Amino acid sequence: MIEPDHPHLPITRQCALVGISRSAFYGGSRTESLETLAIMQAIDGQFLDTPWYGSRQMVRHLRRQGHAAGRKRVRRLMARMGLAAIYQRPKTTVRHPQHRVFPYLLRNMAIDRPDQVWCADITYIPMRRGFLYLVAIMDWHSRRVLSWRLSNTMEADFCIEALEEALSRFGRPGIFNTDQGSQFTSPRFTEVLLDAGVRISMDGRGRWMDNVFIERLWRSLKYECIYVNAFETGSEARAGIGKWVTYYNRTRPHSALGGRTPEEVHTACDGINMAA
After folding, report:
1. Cross-strand bridge partners of residue 176
2. Crossing angle for the helix pair 71-81 and 55-64, nearest 10 degrees?
3. What per-residue confidence (pLDDT) applies to 249?
4. Which of 123, 118, 96, 122 has the alpha carbon at shortest distance from 186?
5. Which residues of 166-175 are buried (b: 16+ CB within 10 A; e: fewer)?
6. What is the DSSP pairing of strand 131-139 with strand 199-202?
7. CATH for 117-275?
8. What is the dihedral angle through the alpha carbons of 75, 103, 100, 146, rounded to the nearest 10 degrees?
9. Most exposed residue of 5, 151, 169, 232, measured as fewest CB within 10 angstroms of its CB?
10. Could you report the per-residue pLDDT of 200-233, keeping only the tens digit for each?
11. Residue 160 binned pLDDT confidence (cut-offs 50, 70, 90)
12. pLDDT surpasses 70 at 188
């Protein structure tokens, strides 16, 4: 899909048009043996149900499912997938010791309008012959997915691209909340928010419930899209995820939103704000 020698479009612009990060283009594919990929998918599925499982408990679960995997291997795979038990440290990535961590601003806050708070998170996406990472930017009140990006690395580039797209399309939120993963504490990421005049909030260590709405998004996405399709390539995954996100935003009703869709809640309030 990317033509390095295209006469008119640079690689950066081509990557933006097809919705992948530059690191995904330059980094090559992420592959493991079929056996290891099966173990990783089993870990991912179980972790959605029991995010408190550490490597010991995960090994016990895998062995009951017929997977012969030792604790060192499971620990390595969970680290590669960005998974860590909630009582040990935040999910997704280990915080960077030299990055600034911002305080959590949402405690006891009533979040009752769109663009009051946005949040972001990263999840592991299994495919038939490899895996990718997905970041999404979500409006907390309406649950609308504002932007997303796939990457084959856990570097900050794809997170920054998703953030910049959300800001350009929807303006800016009052507060932006994430976990303490190194992608989100990266000065390159936080400077985009600070330059836009956005207040930054970060979950406490091990407090995955602080970002619970986007955690629910991952569960729905994986059970309704990822696991039932087993995508072969990154382009297939991007097309399938894009179709599901459109369905989620525009068609899938939410009981917490009174049976309305995220897009209906988000755009309706936009209209009220513009009229005011």
Report:
1. 118, 200
2. 110
3. 97
4. 96
5. bbeebeebeb
6. unpaired
7. 3.30.420.10
8. 70
9. 5
10. 999 865 455 556 788 889 989 999 999 889 898 8
11. very high
12. yes
The length of the chain is: 276
pLDDT at 272: 43
> Using CA atoms, how far apart are residues 59 and 224, in angstroms rounded to an integer?
26
In the numeric block, the tokens 């009174």 are attached to 258
Q: For the chain, which residues make up each domain, given as ranges?
A: 18-81, 117-275
The one-letter code for the residue type at 40 is: M
pTM of this structure: 0.73
List all residues 6 or more positions away from 262 whose beta carbon is below 8 Å from its beta carbon. Answer: 139, 142, 143, 144, 145, 248, 249, 252, 254
Beta bridge partners of 178: 202
Which range (73-77, 94-98, 263-267) has the least confidence? Answer: 94-98
HEC-encoded secondary structure of the chain: CCCCCCCCCCHHHHHHHHCECHHHHHHCCCCCCHHHHHHHHHHHHHHHHCCCCCHHHHHHHHHHCCCCCCHHHHHHHHHHHCCCCCCCCCCCCCCCCCCCCCCCCCCCCCCCCCCCEEEEEEEEEECCCCEEEEEEEEECCCCCEEEEEEECCCCCHHHHHHHHHHHHHHCCCCEEEECCCHHHHCHHHHHHHHHCCCEEEECCCCCHHHHHHHHHHHHHHHHHHHHHHCCCCHHHHHHHHHHHHHHHHHCCCCHHHCCCCHHHHHHHHHHHHHHC
From residue 194, give the alpha-carbon distance in Å to each of 120, 123, 217: 16, 25, 26
Q: What is the distance between the alpha carbons of residues 59 and 75, in angstroms, rounded to a whole number?
A: 9
CA atoms of 114 and 270, how far apart (whole Å)? 8
